[in-house]
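Cross-check.
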Amino acid sequence: MSKEFQVTYDCADPAAQAEFWAQALGYVVQPPPGGFADWEAALTAWGVPPELHDSRSALVDPDGKGPRVFFQRVPEGKTAKNRVHLDVRAAPGLTGDERMAALEAEAGRLEALGAKRLYRIEPGGLEVGHITMTDPEGNEFCLD
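Predicted model, tokenized:
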């Protein structure tokens, strides 16, 4: 039997990371539980100290198909290349120049949101072509 899972990111600014990845993935910031107008009201009711209110954020797939993405503030910064990363499927089913044009368009959109381009791999041999980027906090991901 398959298991549900979430992807968790350690970061400095959970709200900013959540906003970037919501735009990148077409997800939404997880709404507060029923009975609460917003997360601040929920956290206050649960006795969470105000200094911890911005220490976490999460995204959910509005269609309910993809995994939850969770962001948690940690004191240390990123120090090395990610061992696991997301591949954002920006050009499924496309090949050659059409694929690379779609990836370039998505790269431009994400750069406007704060992502940075690292490098582009051209199609050929075993490679179908992709663009490697980083999110605003330097976490690597691929446009695939």
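The chain has a mean pLDDT of 95. The radius of gyration is 17 Å. Passed to J.P. for a second look.
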